[in-house]
Amino acid sequence: MKIYEEVIFTDQLLHHRTVGSQIEETRRTWEQRCSWFPAAQREYYERYAQIYKECLSTYGNDHFEYYAKRNRLREDFRLETNSYKESKTRDSEISMDHVAFYKATPTSNAEYGSVRPMHLFKAY
Question: I need a surface site. Which of 5, 11, 15, 123 has the fewest CB within 10 A?
């Protein structure tokens, strides 16, 4: 005679049937009522850069920079502002002359790994 580990009662079967039909009903309801939302959200997100550019031209650089700094906008949306352009020119003008006279520290076996410390910087 076989011994079954678990006996399934009719109320358990009814519960599983109810849960299964509820999942199908929820999926059908979502497709009818909410399936438009991801496409609309993607469309709005694609327009953010255009909207911010229009705001920059409408309200001027000072107001837009204040808004961008306060709301911590990504750099993608701040490319046209004066502060971003100035920071890029300032970063490109930074000199690495202070690294030219650095020397690698002596080690007991003269091994530094894959790159010697002085060759990490392309200053000379």
Answer: 5
